[in-house]
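Example S7 (structure tokens).
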């Protein structure tokens, strides 16, 4: 099948861009990073960037966005500037670790409507130890300062996104949220590294219950938590459906124009859909996308799970499944342990909220 037709069928309207790949492509060496950063160091050229934009315009009558994602977009800031000049009509956003920001770049982003939606910072300095530079330097102080500098121009939409791995029994969610709020974050997402070993369901439940106590059962700056509470409060018991959508709406693109099912993998051949130059189609990747879409948890071992109505089926990420279990629809052990603990924590959170409602009603 022709790659353009395939992209149309998959309703592609965005591209997530890796400006670099391979050894030396990021100033950080985060312990849990899903990008291995192996092999030849490659840097996207301006011509490849323009060819990718042209490809997107051929696919979609009204393309939506370019998302600069990896490995660290600010290593090639000139490409971001060129993208804005070449595609003034497209939304442009960045996911960044913030290390390479400075006052001049922050001002340019504000002046040219280039948004940082996701800023990677794991909490306070005690939670940020896994995010060191390639030469071993600690990074929290600098990235926290740069985050605060962004707030006047990007604060309405920026999310402080941390990665949480239970290394050495680290289940401190309250400390992470408190530290990020102290530097000005109003949107916070702490994402569990579900391929990491050591997840304990009871400890996860306790961590979320402590967070519920910290917020006294009230609102939390995590959209993911708010959505879970809303769903539980609605009383819906049905499976909410697979939300992965790998291969749909947005493809990842690497420095040489290879297209991938999503932004989460540019190093595995299984994830490669095609290339903007050769226009070939890797049918096995499209088959993976279809397999993900068809997945359901209507099976005996899932029907009795108390976390079923918050389950995403393939987990947070089909690509993570492929990395750690060898199958896009077999979630990691950590996914199920975290989800069950998370659900228990959300049920406790909801009970606090309901108690507050009853108390308010009784004293009215």
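Recovered sequence:
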């Amino acid at each position: 099948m022709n790659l353009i037709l395939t992209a149309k069928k998959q309703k592609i309207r965005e591209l997530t861009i890796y400006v670099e790949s391979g050894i030396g492509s990021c100033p950080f060496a985060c312990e849990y990073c899903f990008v291995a950063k192996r092999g030849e160091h490659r840097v996207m050229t301006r011509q490849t960037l323009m060819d990718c934009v042209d490809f997107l315009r051929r696919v979609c009558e009204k393309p939506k966005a370019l998302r600069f994602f990896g490995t660290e977009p600010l290593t090639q800031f000139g490409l971001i500037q060129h993208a804005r000049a070449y595609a003034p009509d497209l939304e442009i956003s960045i996911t960044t670790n913030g290390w390479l920001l400075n006052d001049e770049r922050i001002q340019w982003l504000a002046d040219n409507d280039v948004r940082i939606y996701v800023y990677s910072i794991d909490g306070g300095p005690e939670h940020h130890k896994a995010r060191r530079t390639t030469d071993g330097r600690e990074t929290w102080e600098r990235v926290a300062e740069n985050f605060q500098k962004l707030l006047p121009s990007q604060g309405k939409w920026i999310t402080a996104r941390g990665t949480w791995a239970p290394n050495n029994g680290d289940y401190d969610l309250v400390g992470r949220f408190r530290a990020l709020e102290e530097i000005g974050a109003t949107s916070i997402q702490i994402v569990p590294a579900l391929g990491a070993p050591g997840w304990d369901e009871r400890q996860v439940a306790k961590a979320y219950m402590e967070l519920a106590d910290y917020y006294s059962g009230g609102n939390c700056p995590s959209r993911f938590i708010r959505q879970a509470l809303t769903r539980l409060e609605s009383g819906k018991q049905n499976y909410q459906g697979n939300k992965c959508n790998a291969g749909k709406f947005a493809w990842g693109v690497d420095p040489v124009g290879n297209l991938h099912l999503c932004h989460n993998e540019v190093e595995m051949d299984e994830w490669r859909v095609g290339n903007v130059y050769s226009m070939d189609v890797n049918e096995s990747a499209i088959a993976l996308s279809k397999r993900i879409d068809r997945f359901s948890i209507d099976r005996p071992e899932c029907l009795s799970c108390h976390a079923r109505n918050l389950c995403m089926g393939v987990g947070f990420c089909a690509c993570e499944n492929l990395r750690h279990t060898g199958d896009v629809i077999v979630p990691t052990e950590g996914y199920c342990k975290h989800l069950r603990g998370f659900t228990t924590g959300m049920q406790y959170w909801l009970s606090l909220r309901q108690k507050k409602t009853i108390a308010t009603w009784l004293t009215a």
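Notes on this example. The CA atoms of residues 48 and 257 lie 7 Å apart.
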